[in-house]
Amino acid sequence: MPSTHLRRERPLDGVTSITVKIGLLVVLSIVAAVVLMQVGSRAGVPGWITLPVALAGALGVSRWLARGMTSPLREMTRAAGQMAAGDYSARVPATSADEVGRLGHAFNTMAADLAAADQERRQLVATVSHELRTPLAAQRALLENLVDGVVTPDDTALQTALAQSERLSGLVSDLLDVSRIDGGAAPLHLAPVRVAELLGAAAAEATVGGRDVRVETRVEPTDLVVDADSARLAQVVANLLDNAIRHSPAGGTVTVHAAAADDRWFLEVGDEGPGIPAEQAQRVFERFGVGEDGGGGTGLGLAISRWVCQLHGGTIAALPPPGDATGARVRAVLPRHPSARDVQPAAPIQHRTPTQHGTPEENPVTATHPTPSSTTAATDAPPLPAATTDALFGDFWPERESLRTATGQLAGSVAVGALAALVLPYRNIGLGVLLVLLLAGGLVLASSVYRRRRWTVVSAALCVGLASLVVLRAAEWLAVLAVLVAGVLVATALTDARKVLSMLAAGATWVGSGIRGLPLLGRTLTAAGRQERLWPVLRTTALSLVALVIFGGLFASGDPVLGSWVSAVLPDITIADSLVFRGFVWFLVGGVVLAACYLALNPPRVEKVALRGARPVSRPWEWAVPAGVVLAVFVAFLVAQASAMWGGHDYVLNTTGMRYADYVHQGFAQLTAATALTLVTIALVVRKAPRSDPGDRRLLRWILGALCLLTLLVVVSALSRMAVYQQAYGFTVLRVLVDAFEVWLGILVLLVMVAGVRMSGWWLPRAALASGAALLLVIGLANPEARVAQANIDRFHEVGKLDVAYLASLGADATPVIEAGLPADLAECVVAGQYASSLEDDWLGWNLGRARAAQVSGYGTDNSRGLACEPQIGE
Predict the structure, then answer these.
(1) Can you tell me the distance from the alpha carbon of 352 to that of 120, in angstroms, rounded to the nearest whole number?
(2) Calpha distance 596→311 (Å, rounded)
(3) Can you identify the CATH homologous superfamily of domain 185-335?
């Protein structure tokens, strides 16, 4: 099962180069985006739906491939963390054939070596403690008896003390040898060595101390001479004899046999003890590889002996006893005259992993491959760990530890997307859109961690009002604008944004949730995948639908014959194009809702997005003077405005050479920009104002207060200018919206004045957003297209001027007003020129504006008649 899972998650494991993998990732991502764009285009899906779906598809393919490429690195990071905490059992599945896979193999080998080193360290402490305790205890007891006079300091007592000291010295010598071996500081000094003399001296030394074991030596030929390091070779013989004597029974015999064989010679030591089991034959030569018979010893002697043999260019091994004999046989085979090549430094003493019970050849997997438990743990890891996303988002957007899965949000988003796919395509904006918006908003609100905050409640109420405009008004531009403003409200409510920059960041994090939420999505899908009955059915159904949508859409729209067959089976609809369209809508709406749910469950710290703390000016006039200059300019402008108003048309014409209507239109954009810049200026002055002297702050407050009052007069002047211009040249929806924007700027100025009076403005950004949303809601409820049509009709009755072409361009909201306000023939001409959707409204597509327009005779029936009308009347 783990191997199948790894093959599924790492499709590029067989590629042997990481560079080629990256190239394939880029190419396949581009191919996925192009295919989705082509499918959507052929199915008639609008570009604003196709583009995000194609980008998401490319991102999904790249993430699927990149996940397999980078998962070993993530697992190594996690395993390294465990190793840093002292757990050396972690392994990584090194299944890739590229550089990352080779790194994984090396990592597993390193982990095994570290585990062995840690085990040896622990065993060294235990073994040395045990070995030191016995001679130290005996020596301490003897010295205490000598001090207390219990024992006379004769030769026997001193000999006993000397024996204990020699035992301690031997243990320390072994440890020093191991240290020299590991450090590579144990060179050989080759010289002729008489083997018989070496063995005789070693046997005599080994039997000292009253050991009831007899040592027999035999050398063939008796005058055998070899080239070796005499000290190291004596160490080998002493270690082999010590090991054999310790495991021999009382009265037993240890045989030492040395013989020459061509250019090599061998040294064999045998005893009559319990012997060495076959499965322990290699382990006894490892560090602390003591037998299981309780013979004692540090477990270093045989390991040092093997290293010395290797250093001479030879080998050492444990052999089974001949025939029915018992005991252990250890044979070392060495060159008689080692060459320079033979005496190259050998590998360090073999490390033994804690779980290894055989030779390296018998356990090839242990050092380079993970155990089954570690593999399972690695594959159950989340697809995009927090470490990866933290590197991308940092402390700005950490994930809550309690957030493990979001099954309800995932299921709800899929359901909302499915509902949108069923009710939105091939229908006008109406009741179905409202239903989708309300269900999506309810799901997101229920998921929000800030759902009980006052701002969330206010935002939810405004969003419901704005969403209702899709049913009350037929103007598509109004519906789009209302949904966008509602989206801003939702983003600020979900993130609890309070400042201007935080609110801007909140809108961006909705898009970023598509990436930040991938780990949670992966965990949720993994949890759902454990449902043995439900998940396979859903997965099979989804894959079948995707295959049907993609390939059915391509072939049915690209082959007329196949398309005719599909039409014959389902004559009422083009099933392929419909499925493609609905599939794209499902993915887009469900993805947007799911991203909002993640934003609700795990909001980022948007308050971190802020300007650096400003350094207040030390001299108040540094900002008071510029603010005063702006104030003077405002005064001069208002004086000019008063002169134009009092002088009237003749004064303006004589002074500027322009008609009054042209004069007021020319300066409207500048006044709007001046109003907005005034708010920016006030914000800068407040930010840099001195905070030490109350008198300085009071001066700036008076200047800014006067500037706000003059700005309100500028707003009134701008609105009056637009009113005069519209009365002269006609009313349009765009001019109404510009008026509304200027009104909103005036509201902001009033809010700034209130903040200045209260000496507190933390609420100002939210109040500005709420006032803008409320103003848009008021505009929508006031039916702007109908009011513009009515204003133009009233102007027509007053001055006889009418822009018929513009009236015909207005939507269904204006139709009843046009029918009621204009003469019958002119109204019929205008109404017939209006665009009417070819889609018939059912109850899901019902809209109040279109329902009223449909009751008017001739609405949208003959566009050619509208073109035959005079575009301008009375001009």
Answers:
(1) 8
(2) 68
(3) Histidine kinase-like ATPase, C-terminal domain (3.30.565.10)
